Amino acid sequence: MLLFNEPETLRMAKLGRELRAQGIDIIDLSLGEPDFDTPQHIKDAAKKAIDDNWSHYTPVAGYLELREAICYKLKRDSGLEYTPDQVVVSTGAKHSLANTVLSIINKGDEVIIPTPFWVTYEALVQLAEGTVVKIRSSLKNGYKITPEQLEAAITPKTRLFMFSSPCNPSGAVYSKQELEGLAEVFRRHPNLLVISDEIYEYINFCDRTESIAQFDWMKDRTIIVNGLSKGFAMTGWRLGYIAAPKEIAKASEKLQGQFTSGTNAVAQRAAITALTAPLDATKAMVKEFARRRERVLELMREIPGFEFAMPDGAFYAFPCVDAYFGKTDGEEVIKNADDLAMYLLNKAHVSTVTGSAFGDKQCLRLSFANSMENIEKGFARIKEALAKLS
Ligand code: PLP
In which residue ranges of the chain is pLDDT below 50? Predict the structure, then answer.
């Protein structure tokens, strides 16, 4: 039987909740979801769906109207042409990723994942009995890998490359030119597939998120993973999807047909509205994230020893905190980022996530999916607690 650790993001959220239940005022900077409510027009569509009796089993791959809406969205936002038979709707992007990895990866296949990466990627590859090959990105390169690094990591066993842009946790966003550099490497390795996790697509502070599927020679080998959790503040609705080559969509549908069947009917009907209506509510949310990001950058500059790249997307800061390793407050010694995250939780009452959860032991992930007031308070506490370490 395979045993996995609980994702560190969920563990920190749970520890924070436990301390809060004891009456301790915890500031949560570990959150991986927008602190906004789902926009009203989407909630109205869901209410109508209930009244209209969308209450039966749904097609495994999702309602045709929803898959058409996804194709419309892909064309509108990324200029990409897909047909509904290339789309599979699932119970969150996490589920889409699981379906895809399990459909593609056989025992011993190598999967290249740049670090830092989202917690679940590695576990899914292990579940499929594949081998994870990590490429280290660095602060110096803005947490993006180079074509040379990619080329050097490819072996005859490589089957898949998997990444998110915007990236959780680093906030790195690959430009069109940078993606083209990677795509040129894939051109030389035609058997390699790519999972492009675009769940933070709308939450970017640059012009727009580019997809690696835009290059002609990439589209037939790229699986776009996306969902409604982040861009529409719909984490609890659990709706994700892939747009993929037909045979991968088919395999994913078959697998899903045995595990969960089609996704929740009401969430699907609401998703049609979310994906086809104007994006005003999303844009307003992103504007607020941008305002907080500016403040977070200012606050991080005030903390001695924090080194960081500008997050161009998502809602996380990912400072390198190794300047504090080996220091003590007189009671405990901070050996690594795990210790620092626990120190901040227990002594400063701020919950963060250790970078080791994302394959980077030097960093902490600090979410700005929290109110400006809590961000200010949280950073003041962090600064004070870190000043006690020597
Ligand atoms: N991909 C990345 C990079 C994420 O950060 C997350 C959620 O945190 C997901 C996928 C999964 O999102 P969903 O809520 O749609 O399962």
Answer: none
Instruction: Return the domain boundaries, the chain.
Output: 8-30+281-387, 40-277
Cβ 197 under 6 angstroms from ligand 1: yes
What's the CA gap between 14 and 116, in Å, rounded?
Answer: 23
pLDDT at 4: 64
The closest of 268, 239, 241, 238 to 253, measured between CA atoms, is 241
Question: Cα–Cα–Cα angle for 86, 91, 95, nearest 5°?
Answer: 75
Residue 3 is predicted with a pLDDT of: 55
Segment (H or E) for 133: strand 131-136
Handedness of CA 342, 343, 347, 350 (dihedral sign): negative
Return d(Cα 381, Cα 390) in angstroms, integer. 17
164 CA: nearest ligand 1 atom: 3
Backbone angles phi, psi at 299, to 5 degrees: -65, -35
Check pocket membership of 229 for ligand 1, CB cut-off 6 A.
yes
Q: pLDDT tens digits for 166-224?
A: 999 999 999 999 999 999 999 999 999 999 999 999 999 987 889 999 999 999 999 99
Provide the pairing of β-strand 240-243 with 316-317: unpaired
Q: For ligand 1, pick from 230, 234, 260 the residue to mutate: most ligand atoms within 8 Å of CB.
A: 230
Q: 116: Cβ below 6 Å to ligand 1?
A: no
Neighbours of 271 (CB within 10 A): 31
Torsion of CA 4, 5, 8, 14, to 10 degrees: 110
Looking at residue 80, its pLDDT comes to 98
- C-alpha distances in Å from residue 204, one per residue of 77, 89, 185, 297: 13, 24, 26, 15
On the 0-12 / 13-18 / 19+ scale of CB atoms within 10 A, 132 is middle
327 CA from centroid of ligand 1 (Å): 34
The CATH number for 40-277, chosen from 3.40.5.50, 1.10.3720.10, 3.20.20.70, 3.40.640.10, is 3.40.640.10
Tell the CATH superfamily of the 8-30+281-387 domain.
Answer: Aspartate Aminotransferase, domain 1 (3.90.1150.10)
Expressed in angstroms and rounded, the spacing between residue 4 Cα and the centre of ligand 1 is 18
User: What is the model's pLDDT at position 119?
Assistant: 86
Q: How much is the pTM? A: 0.96
